[in-house]
Amino acid sequence: MRCPHFAFRLPLHLLLPLALCLGLVLLLSACSSTNRLLKARPVTLTSFFEHPQLAQDARKQLGFQKVWTTPDRAVLAASLTKRRLYIAPVTLAYLRPVDKALATQEIAWGLQRQERDIAIRLHQEFTAAFQRSPRPLYQLACQPGPDTVILQLALTELNPTSPKGNAVMTMMKIAVSPVAALGGFFTKGNIAIEGKMLVPMPMPAASSSSVPAIPTKGRGKPAVKPTSKPSSPLQHRPYFQFADNEADKLTLVSARDYQPYGHAVHTIREWAVHFEEMTRAPRGTKVGDSSAVTLRVY
């Protein structure tokens, strides 16, 4: 028995706008200058980031908007000898309130701001990037130590995507014009982080004049109480910092557009991979930035 054959064909009035949308997305993704134009702008650094006035633009070289490297050669030299990395829990102490109109409205309608879940995911993805790397520079450590550098991460902005707004934009892209895709600017969410690498350094030795003298009975000079030499206490000094802000990618149609934090999770994964690659890349090597446009459905 022959099964009936059903052919699904889009009407011409829908097929043409879809073709134009696809062409527009392909054109934008191929143009590097347009990609830079569509990327999210840097946000103001928080007090988590030390020496913000010395931060440099690194978008063309490292894929992060702002970076800072210590000018202290001793600290930098000490960091180069370490091969263990402890990733500290992500802090939410510097997270700013939601500041986008549609995102604020979505939260008023009952959307949950999942900052704790996103912070956990951020830690998990950075950990996984080193675990999956074929040649990681660092071996992960469970706790800080004298031979271990520390990566501290702060989530500083988290504006969810507007699923309802994107549903309207999708209908407009198909039914009206592919140019309506640019209206997604108002429905986009964004996520911003700051990171800090610290290396353990011995604290400066105390002056011998601070050792109390023990007076002796009778004549002679005061005797200093003999003590065993204690181990030098350590202080953690920052030697590298980075900051980045990413908005939702421009899409033709993607499942991420209808998930409040779908784009944010994808961005976190890209950050983690870029950071791990950066740690083992030879000095001066370019680590590419992510694209502001995607054709991926998921």
List the SSEs and their pairings.
Elements: H1 12-30, H2 32-38, E1 56-58, E2 64-69, H3 73-80, E3 84-87, H4 101-108, H5 115-132, E4 139-140, E5 148-159, H6 163-175, E6 190-202, E7 213-214, E8 223-224, E9 234-247, E10 250-251, H7 262-280, E11 293-294
Helix pairs in contact: 5-7
Order of neighbouring strands in the sheet with most strands: 1-2-9-6-5-3-4
**Proportion of residues in extended strands:** 15-25%
Portion in helices:
25-40%
Give the distance, in angstroms, between the N- and C-terminal Cα atoms. 38 Å
- Low-confidence residue ranges: 4-8, 207-211
H/E element string?
A: HHEEHEHHEEHEEEEEHE
Write down the CATH topology of the domain at 63-203 and 234-282: Double Stranded RNA Binding Domain
Q: Given the helix and strand composition, which structural class is it?
A: alpha/beta
The number of helical runs is 7
Cα-atom radius of gyration: 26 Å
Number of strands: 11
Outline the structure in words.
This protein is α/β, with parallel strands linked by helices and 298 residues long. It has a domain at 63-203 and 234-282: 2-Layer Sandwich (Double Stranded RNA Binding Domain), CATH 3.30.160. The chain has 7 helices and 11 strands. The strands form 3 sheets. Strands 1-2-9-6-5-3-4 form a 7-stranded mixed beta sheet. A two-stranded antiparallel ribbon has the order 7-8. A two-stranded parallel sheet has the order 10-11. Helix 7 (262-280) links the parallel strand 10 and strand 11. Helix 5 runs parallel beside helix 7. The two termini are 38 Å apart.
